[in-house]
Amino acid sequence: MPQSEYLTGTRFSSTGLAIVRLMTHAAVGLLIRRRRGLARRSQMDLAHEIGISPRHLSFVELGKSKPSAGLLLTIARHLDVPLRERNDWLLAAGYAPRYPETSLTEPALVRVRRSLQLLLDAHDPFPAAVIDRTWSVQLTNQAARQLVSDIPADVRGVPTNIFRTALHPAGLAPRTRNFAQWSAYLLWQLDRAVARSQDPTLATLAHEIATWPAIPERQAWGHLSAEEGDDPVVPWRLEAGGQELSLITTMSTFGTPMDVTLSELSIELFFPADEATENALRRHAHTGSW
């Protein structure tokens, strides 16, 4: 009787196992080639950068050579592959995932969650939020909640999504005085997020947003630019309580995340772009009125 083994609950002959291994090698090779194409890197350039021969990299991409886990992670690092996708590469090559994915509500991240909330609360009376890879809000402060308090949940999404809230015709879009400029910034970010994450939920949202009024064709998003006007930083000009607020935004991430959840979080802090906006936000926080 030929030698046989069990793999994921299915019995394979030695010939069958060889085919499975070849398919596994090919699968991870395709993932590497697709990501290299998105990064617009040549085989020769990438191979020389990571210290292997172009022939070796070619064999890996064609499924003729099985890469070690270390080589996979080196390639992923040089292509700036997200941790979630690095786990996918490892699984496709037959290795165990390297990076855990921990919910912000789990005990292991309680201290991180508490620190993030302290940062957001300290930023009051200016809006701030922690968002994930789909730009859905995971944590927020009082000022941010007040800005969207009158927008229905079915418009914002559950959890609240920045793209939906800012671009939906029943969201903040009608209140955004410089919508063409601000939407160009957001749509360019959304286009990048879809390409980087390859997340089907985010891709579906992008297709939905493309059908909304005043939104350019989907193919144009990657070429949009918000660089108009004389402002040193692109502002978000938002009507609130009959007056215009002018806000600028900063984004920050964890420097050395080793957890998928933390690697996908960004902290967005809004600051007043002028004195009138600062006074209005402070007054609203104190009195509840604009």
TrEMBL record:
Q: Does the keyword rRNA-binding apply?
A: no
Q: Where are the transmembrane segments?
A: 12-32
CDD domains from the UniProt entry: HTH_XRE
Task: Decide whether keyword Cytoplasm is in the record.
Answer: no
Q: Name one Pfam family in it.
A: MLTR_LBD
> Could you tell me the keywords of this UniProt record?
Membrane, Transmembrane, Transmembrane helix
Q: Which residues form the HTH cro/C1-type domain?
A: 32-86
Q: What is this protein called?
A: Helix-turn-helix transcriptional regulator
